[in-house]
Design goal:
homodimer; alpha/beta; Rossmann fold; Dihydrodipicolinate Reductase, domain 2; 2 domains; seven-stranded parallel β-sheet; 12 helices; 31% helix; globular; disordered C terminus
Amino acid sequence: MKTRVLVVGYGTIGKRVADAVRAQSDMELVGVCTPRPNANVLALLRRGEEVPLVAYDEESEEAFRRAGISTSGRLGELLSSGEVDVVVDASPGGAGAENKRRFYSQSGVRVVFQGGEEPGVAEVTFSPFFNYDVARGRRYVRVPSCNTTGILRVVNALLRVGPVEEVFIAIVRRAHDPADRKGARLNTVALDGGVPSHHARDVKLVVPVNITTVAVVAPTTLSHFHVARVRFAGGGVTREEVIEALSSAPRVVVVGEPFSATADLAEFFRELRPRGDMYEVAVLEQSVSVDGSSAVLAYVVHQESVVIPENIDAVRALASGVPPWESVRMTDSSLGVLSGRISLTAARAAPRPEVKVLA
Amino acid sequence: MKTRVLVVGYGTIGKRVADAVRAQSDMELVGVCTPRPNANVLALLRRGEEVPLVAYDEESEEAFRRAGISTSGRLGELLSSGEVDVVVDASPGGAGAENKRRFYSQSGVRVVFQGGEEPGVAEVTFSPFFNYDVARGRRYVRVPSCNTTGILRVVNALLRVGPVEEVFIAIVRRAHDPADRKGARLNTVALDGGVPSHHARDVKLVVPVNITTVAVVAPTTLSHFHVARVRFAGGGVTREEVIEALSSAPRVVVVGEPFSATADLAEFFRELRPRGDMYEVAVLEQSVSVDGSSAVLAYVVHQESVVIPENIDAVRALASGVPPWESVRMTDSSLGVLSGRISLTAARAAPRPEVKVLA
């Protein structure tokens, strides 16, 4: 039986989760719920897809009616009906906790929250690579933010090299999402929050690693950019080992020539996927440098899409009997998540159809 | 019999033209030709599509071989073989003229050049709305640049209101394409060239209209933004007439609530099309203002994709018996080019599948 999923919030994350749920053979998208019609709803209508729109409440229903858009019931009613197994709540930060009080706690529904919520909203802050089994069968889990999700994948990869003694990461955050205007700060780089930034705390909620993170905001919209220094417990680590660990880990790609910037990657993934989504953490090969027991690496984390695979795994952890590695395989195969190396020098390793020879 | 098209140059325009050619029922993409393997070629390989790669020359063939990528012959040979009816040359500005000297003039092939070439490279600077029949059966035509193409569509729309006496347009250009780094000038707005800018000249090559254009460069990457003032020959023009003319013209959309910025439109079209392409000129409804015989309007022109439909029409003008309006219809239907109005208040007019009512 398919897991019936409702997405609440239809912004940057919600619209992507909704599409990803539809790509899973073991899930059914019951609908999407959003307080007000917005440009994303308009795009959904234009795409002509069969996705029921669920009104948030009475006021919301009225707003949709004024725009001439049909809705199918209200959130509260739908949850009471027992026709939803899991809600993925992709509301703006803090609104998820409010939704929990107002709607979720009164029904038996299980909920995946996002990293914009405080950790206390859920029983587990989640990573399929570290604590999938802890999350199994719970009511509330939280997928940490894009930066934390990216760090957890890199830590998961580097643990293949050996025990990690210390991690330090300078996070150069994008200022805001591409379509936002509020918060735009052109021509400045600003410290974002205190030291350590909240990312270190979130990582430690998932895996006990000695980590410090500092975040600064740069005037870009495309992706976050991390500069990491990692000290391994043992010495004698080689650059080849580190690259091998990164390029054999799930949801991480090592990118070489001609990729060295967030914009290079954004343009490449525009060719490959709707919305130009980059589900993978992309490690810049030229940045990987190893000296004794310490490694330096720089990688790019796409703020809009990197958490989507983890959200899908979180749904499975809550409401299916699928084991963690099988869930990761199913998610990555359905979404076409890449791993390994991408570069012109490694082009021969890429899948290539038989070239039709011209006469 | 299908028109056999080769795309030379596989950058921003070339990759889009190649995909658009493949969407035409009366055209066949013979291949794409590019001097060197680049990230776009890598993406093409990853997409696993059956598009033959043609080497530019011997040196080019060697560069592909080093990257382990198979090619199918060289440009010169292929053109001599008579297996190409039309080349769409999407090389960087100026390289098209060089290709003409080196390759095209020695074969019988017909060629569509881009606006980055000087007008003299071709017999006709082209618009399907004004001079398709003049271009018919010629050897060389030139599709003018994105800004000029956008202006021509708006002029074509406004001529439905009545004779146009004068047009003045301030063009706020994007600084560079999303993946470029050369030419990036953050935190400055600069005059671009003289007054009038070359766009006025290019418009006049197509249609005899009294037009002045001034271009400035702003530090953005998403789209050009035009602010236009148009004086009609007769008085008594109404705002409703102007909006009606714009929203009933081909390849123009009038966008209302919640669209007022280039980024709003970029995000919306990311939902609708690969690469987030916006083939349409998007007029901001809230900008349209009419006073007696003068109208003001602001509109957005997507530099990467707006010329794609006109390139397809140019191929038909050169090498088919299809009449202009039929070509526009075929192009727009195959690419899903929109017209009319897009806004939340007009959402009821949008196509909407039957909503599945939840029990």
